[in-house]
Amino acid sequence: MNAFGKSQSVMRVEDVRFLTGHGRYIDDTAPEGALFAWFLRSPVAHAEIKAIDLSEAKAAEGVVFVASAAELRAGGMDLQLEGAVHPGGARTERPVLAEGKVRYAGEAVAVVVAETLEQAKDAGELIEFDYEDLPVHLALEAGGEALHDTAPDNVAYDWDMGDKEAAEAAMQGAAHRIGLTIVDNRVMVNPLEPRGCWAEWGDGRIHLSVNGQGVWGQKASLARQLGLEADQVRVTTPDVGGGFGLKGFEFPEYSVCAFAARATGKPVRWFAERGEGMLTDNGARDVISEVELGFDEDHRIVSYICHNQANNGAYNSGFGQMIQSFLFGRVFPGTYDITTAYLSARGIFTNTAQTDAYRGAGRPEAIFVLERIMDEAARQMGISPWELRRINFIKPSQFPYTTVSGELYDVGDFTAVLDDLEADADLAGWEQRKAESAGRGKLRGMGLAYYIESILGDPEEHATVEFADDGMVNLYVGTQSNGQGHETVYTAFLAERTGIPMEKIRVVQGDSDRIAKGGGTGGSRSVTNQTNATIATVKQMVEAFAPFVADELGVEDVVFEDGVFTAEGTNQRPSLTDAAEMARAKGRDELLRHEGKATLDGRSYPNGGHVAEVEIDPETGKVELVRYVVVDDFGNLVNPQLAQGQVHGGVAQGAGQVLMENVTFDGDGQLLSGSLMDYAMPRADDMPFYGFRAHPVPSIQNPLGMKGCGEAGTVGSMGAVTNAVIDALWEKGVRNAQVPFTPHRVWSLLKEAEGGVTR
Residue range 596-600: average pLDDT? Predict the structure, then answer.
């Protein structure tokens, strides 16, 4: 057995199931004979609802249930989905089916449940939806037609942190002042598996199965909405084909399907079509930042000021109000010794689908802004971008370090990581690579970004180890895999800690009946928190077994190490599995199940450097990412192979946004990028081959010295790729271009710079 705890990669145990077609996703698991739900959606972005006539739909062939908000309310359902709100932020009602108004194109207006999906769609076309258009508000500024009575100026929140007066005074006295407007464009999440659910009612209980990132929040929400006690609700999650934050939240379809299942007494299923998901899923990013950095004569930062204007969408959603404010603020000063700073954030309600967490949730946005302006400052002050970062890094001797935003960074050696990155980036060969590109008529640029992020989520996690009757050992976990390889990580870690063979361990997740509590997956918390809980459970288990094993061996005391119990005076070496069989034979069933929990002392802070190189064809504007280098400090690695996979995926998502992804609406709020013909996603041939180097500085906030890695690739890549494109365009006179760098946009920028005509 590989010594997994000693940072050994272990082949993924779940891949045999997935690669042989035995994965079980939400649409595979719906009960036999389940009815199909279909949602009628608003064709306009803002309107007053005059009437919804369901009569013809109710009489249609195969239809079992039809409802608008009025029918759900009459049936006793609490229609409201809840979202976090800043103190003083606007509280709004978000009904699961539109009531009174529709506020974005695609908002669900009614539901039809029928024997087949085709029957449900046909019946939906018979619903008469009468509405009167209202003015559409899309601008990221206060004013316009109010979406909600509680926000007459369409301001969702107005939040700030830091000392505004001190920051402005320091900026006034700075030797160098660098300012930028930075657009972080709106993107779609687009997991491989769209959202879906099914629900069934029986024995006075509702069972909702949803492809989510944790079952407990959904359980609490569903109990409230249906007026049920907690023990009347079961939520489960099967295999999940990608989450990225999107699937961590409640959505209207889930509770409506549950209501329909209870109302009809039959199972009800719903699965989003791709276009439906693109229209109605939470969007992400969508923030404009006005930023300014002040430096002294030695190029040290003396002040940092940032003002965010963020799109909140039509309603408050899960963490929507927190992303571009509180979570952005967590890593607002990055890895730099900034003592004077000010951040303000204003969220605006618009007639678009909600925005919420997406791989990184505020941290990619914050680092993107900071690393863009650091690069701009280096250019304007005539200093190397590498040297500027070294001058301003927090030094190892300053840790633990409390940032200007109140975060306590535990450890770090940013200069050492940057030194590794510089070596791997081969700066000595840069001019030759650039000349070779020029010889082929291409512009070549190099971009650097240094990031830090904070792992988020509930610091507490639970784990249970159970010796099952079939000879397997069940490990119950409070997180939820969305494809990251959790089964491999948790199985191998428990095997290393206990000596139980990996093939005898079965990971159990995503079932609120079998697992009473958990923090779910999100914010790069899963492996750090879950292994911490497993350590606590194993400790408890060994302590519980020790006196029993001692009695069985006829000795006073035993020691557990290397997976076996040993004692002086005997050569018997029973394993935990042996001990469990002995306990079962003696009727000591209390020894066959052990529950533990653990709470992290504090967050860890993954950090690292990314270098991107791009080539631009000035004739077409096409940008090609040709070289990429990453050095990360993830603390002690548990499974390097899985960590590298997380980095690769994250980099692709960040680069995809910078180079091609972009959500667009017309002036009426109609989505123009609502299909994969209109919304570009990165493919394999858009990414170069690249490796991953680890420079671990172990965290002191958890027993393993780990730092989360799930979102780090995205946090670092957005700035690196953008800076590379700007570097390539700079020599042609292009300044502060905004993402995404599509061929048409880049070609137009080059034509503008040379005095040509843009098209």
Answer: 93
CB 106 within 8 A of CB 41: yes
**Is the residue at 315 inside a domain?**
no
Q: Which residues pair with 306 in a beta bridge?
A: 291, 343
Same domain, residue pair 211 and 80: yes
Please indicate, yes or no, if residue 184 is contained in any of the structural domains.
no
Q: Which two tokens stand for residue 97?
A: 């089916």
Spatial contact of 31 and 91, defined as CB atoms under 8 Å apart? no
pLDDT confidence band for 10 (50 / 70 / 90) = confident
What is the spatial distance between Cα 336 and Cα 333, in angstroms, rounded to a whole number? 6
pLDDT tens per residue, range 93-148: 999 999 999 999 999 999 999 999 999 999 999 999 999 999 999 999 999 999 99
Q: Count Cα atoms within 13 angstroms, Cβ side, for 461.
A: 31
**DSSP label of 710:** T
Q: Is residue 286 part of a domain?
A: no
Q: Say yes or no: 492 and 416 in one domain.
A: no
**With contact defined as beta carbons under 8 Å apart, do 626 and 724 qualify?**
no
Cα–Cα distance for residue pair 266/34, rounded to 1 Å? 7
Q: Which two tokens stand for residue 205?
A: 């209980």
- Interval 250-272 mean pLDDT: 98
SS3 694: strand
Q: Where are the alpha helices (DSSP H) in 300-351?
A: 320-322, 328-330
Beta strand pairing call for 505-508 and 473-477: parallel
Enclosing domain of residue 255: 26-134+190-280
Average pLDDT over residues 148-153: 96
Residues 183-207 have a mean pLDDT of 97
- 586 and 626 co-located in one domain: no
Burial 217-246 (b: 16+ CB within 10 A, else e): bbbbbbbebbebeeeebbbbbbbbbbbbbb
Question: Are 591 and 700 contacting, i.e. CB atoms less than 8 angstroms apart?
Answer: no
Percentage of the chain beyond pLDDT 70 is 98
652 and 537 belong to one structural domain? no
Q: Examine the fold and report which residue of 570, 599, 628 is the final residue of a domain before the chain moves on.
A: 599
The DSSP secondary-structure symbol of 481 reads -
Evaluate whether 639 touches 4 at the Cβ level (below 8 Å). yes
CATH number at residue 91: 3.90.1170.50
Residue 129 CA, chain-centre distance (Å), reads 36
* Of 544, 573, 599, the domain-final residue: 599
Helices (H), 300-362: 320-322, 328-330
Cα–Cα nearest to 358, from 529, 184, 237, 523: 523
Cα–Cα distance, 344 to 86 (Å, whole number): 13
DSSP letters of 368-424? HHHHHHHHHHHHHHT--HHHHHHHHBPPGGG-SEE-TTS-EE----HHHHHHHHHHH
Q: Are residues 418 and 468 in the same domain?
A: no
Tokens of 240: 């999940």
The single-letter DSSP state of residue 30 is: S
Residue 542 is predicted with a pLDDT of: 97
Q: Is residue 227 part of a domain?
A: yes
Question: What value, to the nearest 5°, has the Cα angle with vertex 256 and ends 250 and 257?
Answer: 100
Instruction: Look at residue 4 and tell me whether its pLDDT is greater than 70.
Output: no
Q: Are 237 and 480 spatial neighbours (Cβ–Cβ below 8 Å)?
A: yes
The predicted model gives 504-532 an average pLDDT of 94
CATH number at residue 431: 3.30.365.10
- Number of structural domains (the chain) is 3
Give the pair of three-digit tokens for residue 129.
């939806």
Assess whether 525 and 624 both reside in one domain. no
Q: What is the mean pLDDT of residues 288-292?
A: 98
